[in-house]
Design goal:
11 helices; binds nickel (II) ion; cell membrane; four-stranded antiparallel β-sheet; binds adenosine-5'-triphosphate; alpha/beta; eight-stranded mixed β-sheet; 348 residues; ATP hydrolysis activity
């Protein structure tokens, strides 16, 4: 392990779900690295496989019907084949995970302090008194006033935003290196979303956290991310430095995602929740996963899966689209020929 090795490396990750109607390839070959200290944002519409990617990284896929394969390494150590005990130790101590829809993650019958102290003593062999002091520190860290009093309150006495702050405090209890936060504000009132995002960003800076953040909000991407991974139908279709991806999105899907964001006046991010793309019939099994929706699709898009090619010659900005790489005419095509050969790819 050298300093330049990624803290987290995800390579050709698959999560296939066995259902009554056959196998759903909900995550279908996702690769990206997260370097120590950076913030990587995972974006993509609802159902594209973001949560399942996070669950697979942390070994928390809850169902035996989900088959996870590929490689996930943390500091060079393979997690997918790690034993349950080893995994629990890495997950508990080094990687913290803020779940999507965690509103009910706090137990209503225990005080906030009990739950925080439990998280602290689970990770560190400290006395109850020390744990209580650390719990007060942590509540203060996440921006709760009168933390000592709050320890004896029950979760229902807190607002949604305060509960999310407590969950962040619990996630920090182990002093993790990597925080995976899956849409940490989607359940919150819009007026407090940015405060929670600011808190996460401040904590990241203060505590040298590495952050993998799932978000629908492109404003969050623009202000927090160092690098972006764009998912579509279980595939990572584009990845790269945030400026490059935002200014010159290379994949036609990313372009349409960003256009829909701009179309909404940039208020709510690329939120296409109501338009969940079915993983069954409409996503082609061969070739490019986006070709049926793609205005630039040509016959070649039906062939092999498109390789991850550099966009405009930028080595670490890549898109899984045949219009990149050596195709010198890529920009011209993507900019000017939106209806190219439309229709030839719709049968397979
Ligand atoms: N346990 C499961 N059984 C069956 N299908 C599942 C299961 N978990 C996830 N899926 C399916 O896998 C796909 C990916 O789901 P996932 O929750 O990862 O999407 P997401 O990108 O996180 O979406 P959102 O933005 O709505 O949170 C979806 O089509 C979902 O219906
Ligand atoms: Ni999700």
């Amino acid at each position: 392990m050298t300093d330049t090795d990624p803290l987290l490396s995800v390579d050709d990750l698959h999560a296939h779900i066995a259902t009554a109607d056959g196998t759903v390839r909900a995550v279908d070959g996702v690769s990206f690295d997260v370097q120590r200290g950076e913030t990587v944002c995972l974006v993509g519409e609802s159902g594209s496989g973001k949560t399942l990617t996070c669950d697979s990284i942390t070994g928390l896929v809850s169902s035996s019907q989900v088959d996870v394969s590929g490689s996930v390494t943390f500091e060079g150590e393979e997690l997918l084949s790690a034993g349950e005990r080893r995994l629990r130790s890495i997950r508990g101590n080094r990687i913290a995970y803020l779940f999507q829809n965690a509103q009910n993650a706090l137990d209503p019958v225990y005080t906030v302090g009990d739950q925080l102290v439990e998280a602290i003593t689970f990770h560190r062999d400290v006395s109850d008194g020390t744990a209580r002091e650390r719990a007060i520190d942590l509540l203060q860290t996440v921006g709760l006033s009168r933390p000592a009093e709050r320890l004896d309150a029950y979760p229902h006495e807190f607002s949604d935003g305060m509960r999310q702050r407590v969950l962040i405090a619990i996630a920090l209890a182990a002093e993790p290196d990597l925080l995976i936060a899956d849409e940490p504000t989607s359940a919150l009132d819009v007026t407090i979303q940015s405060r929670i995002i600011d808190l996460i960003d401040d904590l990241r800076r203060e505590r040298d956290l590495t952050l993998l953040l799932v978000t629908h909000d492109l404003r969050v991407v623009a202000s927090l991310a160092d690098r972006v991974v764009v998912m579509y139908a279980g595939n990572a279709v584009e990845r790269g430095p945030v400026e490059a991806v935002l200014e010159q999105p290379g994949h036609p899907y990313t372009q349409s995602l960003f256009r829909s964001f701009v179309g909404q006046g940039g208020t709510n991010g690329p939120d296409r929740r109501t338009e969940t793309v079915g993983r069954d019939g409409s996503i082609p099994k061969e070739g490019c996963c986006f070709r049926r929706e793609c205005p630039h699709a040509v016959k070649a898009c039906r062939g092999d899966e498109p390789p991850f090619e550099p966009v405009a010659g930028v080595e670490d900005h890549r898109a899984a689209c045949i219009y990149h790489g050596d195709r010198k005419d890529a920009r011209t095509v993507l900019d000017t020929a939106p209806q190219l050969d439309r229709g030839v790819t719709d049968d397979d």
